[in-house]
Amino acid sequence: MLEELFLFLIILITSLVISSLLFKNKNRLGMFLPIVLRLAYVGVVIHELSHYFACLIVGIKPRHLKIKWRDEYFGVRSPHGSVKPGRKVSFLQCFIVSFAPLYISTWLIMLTFTIFPSSSFNPIVRVIAFLFCISLFTGAAPSTADFNYMLYAFKLDTTHTFYQIFLVCLSGIILGGVLLYTQVIFPLDVLYYLAIAGLYLFLKFSLIGIHRLMSIVRSRDFRKPTKIKFKSFTRPLYKPKKIKLEWEY
Questions:
Q1: pLDDT score, position 46
Q2: CB 1 within 8 A of CB 39
Q3: Are 42 and 137 in contact (CB under 8 A)?
Q4: How far is CA 122 from CA 38, 114, 119, 131, 213, in A?
Q5: What pLDDT sits at residue 75?
Q6: Where are the domains of the chain?
């Protein structure tokens, strides 16, 4: 798991460097600019789709998903996109959604690394895998808007943010202690994240349940014992109505 986190860090730094070199001064690209823009467009598609599906996973219904080739104001070629959440999100939700492209792109990059250097694949497939790898590097890192949105979510409710961070850290410590005691090793790294998420939800709803129980106990006056109303447990007495008998002819 630690090796995977180190890999994420490498992909993040590499993506930021590549994006800065390619798009900070587009005039230097010359005749390669159309190719780079098309590769970047593929990276934008993966980036925004990762945001969109991450929103659905954390329980946020997005208002829209936009992926555009040209700038809306000047009409120049500028691949970009956006995913707008339907409501305010917490810091943890925003963190997961913002870093979803990095997570998805990292695994896709590792997949391409097994294809284009290998001579067992068709040369055309290897070239496509190499170009796709470059596209992933252009859109793997969170954008400036993603970092700004995380900062906004952090400041929106600082107390709740620290509460979420505490629960995540506590979940990781509990999981680490359990795995160390049982000597269990998960076959896939994603299972560690799912286990932490499960422990987080367990701790969260357990604390919510304890808080509600304490609220009920505090609001109850034990000096005045409640009287049991037996009427709610008894059946009403059946009183038949007097019926006038009539003969039929």
A1: 93
A2: no
A3: no
A4: 23, 13, 7, 15, 64
A5: 74
A6: 2-156, 157-221
Alpha-carbon dihedral sign for residues 194, 200, 201, 203 = positive
Q: Mean pLDDT, 10 residues at a time, over the chain (249 residues)? A: 81 88 73 85 92 90 86 80 83 91 92 88 90 91 89 89 92 91 84 90 90 80 56 50 39
pTM: predicted TM-score of the whole model, two decimal places: 0.78
Neighbouring C-beta atoms of residue 16, cutoff 10 Å: 14
Contact 51, 26 (CB under 8 A): no
Q: How far, in Å, CA of 188 to CA of 223, rounded?
A: 57
* CA gap 208, 163 in Å, rounded: 13
- CA 146/CA 96 separation, integer angstroms: 11
**Placement of tokens 């997005």 in the chain:** 62
Please provide the DSSP assignment of 122-152 as one string.
Answer: -HHHHHHHHHHHHHHHHHSSPPHHHHHHHHH
Residue 71, token pair as written in the block: 């700038």
Give Cα 114 to chain centroid, integer Å: 27
pLDDT at 135 (0 to 100): 92
Which residues 6+ apart lie within 8 Å of 208 measured at CB? none
